[in-house]
Amino acid sequence: ADGAPGHRRWALLAERGHGPDGPVMAAAAMVRKLMSGCCAPGARLALDDLQLAEVEAEMAPYAITTKIEPL
Questions:
Q1: How many other C-beta atoms can be found within 10 angstroms of the C-beta atom of residue 40?
Q2: How many whole angstroms from its chain centre is CA 35?
Q3: DSSP H or E segment with residue 9
C-alpha cells in the first residue's frame, strides 16, 4: 500500500486427479483471450495481457483451488 515492493506466494491445490490439468490453465486462458480478438497475436510476455482471475476462471470446472499468501 505504501508503494514498497512486496513478496507473495501463489499456492495451487489440485484434487481428484486434476493435477495434470493445472499447468495448461494459463495457456488456455491466453488462447481464449486471443480468440476473442482483444490482443494482437505474437510472442511476448503475457503479464500485461493476462490477469490471474482469468487463469483462475479456467480452473472453475476442475477441483483446483488457489490462494495468495504474504511472505
A1: 8
A2: 17
A3: strand 8-14
Q: What is the DSSP string of 15-49?
A: -TT-GGGGGGHHHHHHHHHHHTTSS--SSS-STTT
Please give the single-letter amino acid code of residue 35.
M
C-alpha cell, 5 = 515492493
pTM for the predicted model, two decimal places: 0.75
* Residue of 20, 24, 29, 70 lying closest to 47 (CA atoms): 29
Measured CA to CA, the distance from residue 44 to residue 31 in angstroms comes to 14
Q: pLDDT tens digit string along 17-62? A: 999 988 899 999 988 988 898 887 778 887 788 898 999 999 999 9
- What is the Cα 43 distance to its own chain's centre? 18
pLDDT at 71: 87
